[in-house]
Amino acid sequence: MAILSKIQHRGSSVHSLAWNIPRILLSPVPLILLQPVFSRIAAHVARSRPDLFARLGPHLSKRFLIDPVDLPFVLVLIPDAATPHLTAYRRQENPYYDACIAGTFFNLLEMVDGSLDGDALFFTRDLRVSGDTEAVVALRNALDDFDGSVIDNIVTSFGPLSKPVALALSALRTIRAKDRHE
Amino acid sequence: MNDDAGYIRPELVCPAGTPAGLRAAIDAGADAVYCGFQNATNARNFPGLNFTPAELEQAIGYAHARGAKVLLAVNTFPSAGKFDLWREAVDYGARMGVDAVIVADIGVADYAARAYPNLRLHLSVQAGASSPEGIRFYCQEFGVKRVVLPRILTVSEIADIHRQIPCEIEAFIFGNIGMMAEGRCSLTNYVTGVSTNMDGVCSPAADVHYVEDADRNLTTRLGAVVIDRVACGEFAGYPTICKGRYVCGVKSGGYYAFEEPVSLNLSALLPDLMRAGVTALKIEGRQRSRAYVKSVVSAFRTAVDGVLAGRDPGLADLLALTEGHRQTEGAFRSKAWR
Q: Do A130 and B210 touch (CB under 8 A)?
């Protein structure tokens, strides 16, 4: 954290470093180690937000490819109410999907968290959508029906790790927000 | 209520696509929110959007506890033999205690007026009532208390209408704007078979297809019709036919034959609208996120309060939320628009 707070004051090259921190940190990590985290996120959302699935209507068994374009992997979400799946794949694996949502990690994060508007990101071409557009719209609207921060809610489910994870994410998002306004 | 600067305090009417969106709007300063059920009875019948009856009931409690009103949009046109769904929507709204039902169809207005004489009725923009004669008809026959004016009138025309009608005026101040005759547009129906006015959805998402090539040029299709090709680096708009670019012989290359991707923003005209007798200022965008709702409602809350206090509206920059990253005052400033 001390390092992060220092780099916030060192100009744009540091900002670009902050942009790349998720990629730098995650690139060497084997997906087999990350997968339990994604499974936990899916299970937590299913437990805490059962109403979300009602909004998805006929799209519960669709495969949503979530593509954070600046990360070394993609995620496939199957929002099945009973057993939701969030699975990480290396890009070259080209997993099958019905609908795809692509953007930078931070843009996707802020959109899911209710801080950025998905339509506005689409207008500026910072968000890409392909495949089953109706499924994407349903998922976006379902995720948006949430009071407060989805991300904070998920992070708190990580027990003893929740505080450092929250602090690190908060610092990175602060730098990202400053970048956006410069 | 007249304030020190001589304005009547307008109601800030804000969109709510979900219960969380409704709470975001009210917490950001909305005086009233408008919303609809998860079916064809309202003009934003989009997947994953809108309210169940139970959600609406809870939302009304939340709003009323904070002094805000809930306006229920039942503002599409039932086709023959399908009236029960619209009747049921009005019944739910009346029993739950919504503050008004927004109607467009004469049959729905007639049912609501007869079944619930004390239920306040607002005339939706979808009714397309833009003349004093037309508006007076709805007031006299169905007891309409407020008209939402189509986005085709200048501010001076609004002031003129205000002097000739016995009901309140609600005017759009921000959000989507198109060239169509409101409530009469059949472009989506022509291409997809789904009716904007009867099914409640313009450019149904199931018929929208986006394809981006390796150079990031985006092709947008509605059904079999290519609506636009957006080059890499160009801003995009909604996948609606009225905002599409076509080869039509009038100009070389693709041409925005109806309207360009652009959003209405009347922040600079707020004092004029308030002087023209507008009772309620409406923000469009039930299909947008709670991030949009929070930003736009907060900005206009500050701006309206500023005008009332005799200060510069000082509106926050909302360009980042506009369609195609462009904004217009449309016909409100001048008939020269399009």
A: yes
| Nearest CA-CA distance, residue A159 and chain B, Å | 27
From CA B104, how far away is CA B311, in angstroms rounded?
37
**Which residues pair with residue B136 across a beta bridge?**
none
Preferred mutation among A60, A69, A144, A149 to probe B, highest tally of B CBs within 10 A: A144
Neighbouring residues of B183: CB distance < 8 A, sequence distance ≥ 6: B77, B104, B124, B125, B126, B127, B128, B197
* Tokens describing residue B26: 């009210």
Q: What is the pTM of this model?
A: 0.92
Q: What residue ranges of chain B have pLDDT lower than 70?
A: 1-6, 338
Token representation of residue A42: 């899916």
| B11-177+262-333 CATH choice from 3.30.70.20, 3.30.360.10, 3.30.70.2740, 3.20.20.70 | 3.20.20.70
pLDDT band at A182 (very low <50, low <70, confident <90, very high): low
Cα separation of B58 and B214, whole Å? 47
For the segment A95-106, what is each residue's pLDDT rounded down to a tens digit?
999 999 999 999
Whether ipTM tops 0.85, in short, is yes
Is the CB of B47 less than 8 angstroms away from the CB of A124? no
